[in-house]
Predict the structure of Small ribosomal subunit protein mS23.
Amino acid sequence: MAGSRLEKFGTVFTRVRDLMRSGVVKQSDKPIWYDVYKTFPPMKDPLYVRPVAKRYGKKEEAVPDIFYREDENRAKFYEGCGTGPRAFDLSKSSFVSTCQRFVEKYTEFESQGELEKQSLFEETGKALLAEDLGLRRRGIPAVASETRNPVLGMKLTDMLAEQQADAPGGTRAPGKEKPTQVPLNPQ
């Protein structure tokens, strides 16, 4: 009885009738419509008929893509900056992603109408940087090359050679050190 909730294998009337016969539903708890339906049954029993899909002759209608104006702005953001500096924090309901902040700022500047379309992206990025939101463009290093420490570009072998040149005792190539002898019994 409880296998299907649809009227595929019986009507609501037959189910209630069978529940009353088995004693699950008492005569005093029967629905109001039961006596009326029993007295005046329909001319034709209601049957569940699966609708047949007619695929011949008609072409399926394609669902049109839904685009909002802010989707274009999001696409510009993801194209220029990637996913942003931090991951989404879905545990907080009040979390606003970097992309959403960008879109809100972009639409704010766009509604003011003071900036042209070409400079709007750059000005939005500058405004987000002013809000202390670390925004990086794709393909551009986070730190400018002029301000970068030159030590970061050196190789380990170059650093060892430089240290040995500065050490007292002359210049030696790495790997060709003179072995030092340590006395075994200092007395």
Notes: The chain has six helices and no strands. Residues 98-112 form the longest helix (15 residues). The helical segments are 12-22, 33-39, 69-81, 98-112, 117-130, 156-166.
